[in-house]
Structures are given as structure tokens and as C-alpha cells.
Amino acid sequence: xxxxxxxxxGVLLGVEAIRMLEEGVAGAEAIDNAIELGYRxxxxxxxxxxxxxxxxxxxxxxxxxxxxxKWFALLQLLRSKVAAGxxxxxxxxxxxxxx
Length: 99
Fold this sequence. Notes:
The model has no long low-confidence stretch (mean pLDDT 93). Helix 1 crosses helix 3. By secondary structure, the protein is mainly alpha-helical. The chain has helices spanning 5-22, 28-39, 45-52, 54-68, 76-83.
């Protein structure tokens, strides 16, 4: 079965958080706060994606999409950010600005 339990779950939650941001459900900080406060995660999924790297999250999501299906389908927002070089903490910009 592709993907370890923790990384597979992390990618799925990350993709859903990006989908929520793309659809305008809430801003990045509000989405992350909901995960942190509501589910007691130590870090929200968008901030986690910034720390891992948007490019890395995209590669894992693409692989899981091809092997497991639609739940991991990539979003235009993620593709656009990666194409623009907004890769998260390592480039200083992703879903958050890093200094």
C-alpha cells in the first residue's frame, strides 16, 4: 500500500487545507488555528506544508493521486505557488511569509 500511515494522512489533510483556502472557506491562519485548537495538532496543515516544502507536498500528493485516487488530487493554488517559486520556509514565502 503506498504511503506510510502518518505521511499519507498528512498529505490528505494538507491537500484538504489547501482546497479550503483555494475555495475561500477561510484564510490560512484561520484554517491552521481550527486544526490546532479543534484537533489539538501542534501545527496547522498549511504551516506544516510550508515547513515541509510546497514542492515536496506536491510530489507526494501527485504520487498518491496516481496510486490511490481522487482524494489526493492536486489543486491549482498549490501548482501556482510551486511554479512561482513559493516553496515555503526555504524560499521565504509559501502560505505564510517567513523571515
